[in-house]
Amino acid sequence: MAELTTLESLLEMGFDRNRAEKAVANTGNQGIEQAMDWLMEHENDPDIDEPYVPPVGNVLGGEADSQSNAEQPTLADTAEGGDIGYNETDESSKHPMTEEEKREQVKRLEELMRVKQAERRERERAEEVEREKVRRRQGQELQQIRQKLQDDDMKKLADQRRKEKMEDKMARQRVKEKIARDREERAQKFGGGGPPSTAASFQPAQPSPSSPTSQGPPPTKKEYDESRIQVRLLDGSTITTVFKAQEPLAAVRVYVQMNGNTPEGQDFMLLSPYPRHVYTELDMEKPLKELGLVPSAVLVVAKK
């Protein structure tokens, strides 16, 4: 039984001639399996249906070419009465295939093609599984990188907040220390002059009632060295404490910051309700006595 050439077999199986010729040329006419493999691998190429132009000197269908070459000496030998055995072999190779033989060969080729397609689908499925594994692995790595960056940002933010709190705490501590130093300095300054003034205050009482100087000027106004301050907070509650008369108004503000319920970082101002007077930053350095807040006063906390 004569065999179909690779090109003929592909055409019998229903492949387009242009594609079949490309498959035969690109596989070097090495057989139907290689040609079918090439067709299945390149069926989605964008240029698969472009017209095929064979290179110069290249003849498609090596089997057909070899067969045609074999025909030429056969014809010559027939004309000259050549070798009988050679002619018989050539005639058998030229014998056309019956329809049943063609169907059998096409059936075998179609079965081979189904096997190849199944192998290709299995290979593509395995490649898709592997690509999915790679994609998931890359996604996990990307998620880990994002999580690490997020953790680093949260850590930096926490460190920044701790630093700000520490700086605020140190600033408050410095204010407290300054107030304490101011108190000590005022105590030393006014404490040294206290006894003479006390002695002097008793000296006018020593003369007898009959002394003509008993009708002198009236006694001086009582001096207060402390001030009782009541502060009304933003929510309506009040806090009360006692300050030295010579302490600055800033000491009251610090006391409100430390003991009031004012939100951290909330800026506020102090004012007197009656008569209404809003205290400025310059007033914060003035003693309570100078501001008329001795011996007692009521202050109100207000938002800026």
Automatic annotation (TrEMBL):
The chain positions of domain UBA read: 1-42
Give a GO molecular function annotation for the protein: K48-linked polyubiquitin modification-dependent protein binding
Q: Which PANTHER family match?
A: UBX DOMAIN-CONTAINING PROTEIN 1
**Originating organism:** Seriola lalandi dorsalis
CDD domains given in the database record: UBA_UBXN1
Mind listing the GO biological process terms from this record?
negative regulation of proteasomal ubiquitin-dependent protein catabolic process; negative regulation of protein K48-linked deubiquitination; negative regulation of protein ubiquitination
Reply yes or no: does the keyword Coiled coil apply.
yes
Q: Which GO terms describe its cellular component?
A: cytoplasm; nucleus
**Which keywords appear in this protein's UniProt record, sorted alphabetically?**
Coiled coil, Cytoplasm
Q: Where is the composition biased (Basic and acidic residues)?
A: 91-133, 148-188
- Region (Disordered) residue ranges read 44-227
Q: Where in the cell is it found?
A: Cytoplasm
Protein name per UniProt:
UBX domain protein 1
- Taxonomic classification, please? Eukaryota, Metazoa, Chordata, Craniata, Vertebrata
Which residue intervals are annotated with compositional bias (Pro residues) in the record? 206-219
Which residue range or ranges hold the UBX domain?
Answer: 222-301
Composition bias, kind Low complexity: at what positions?
A: 196-205
A Pfam family this chain is assigned to? UBX
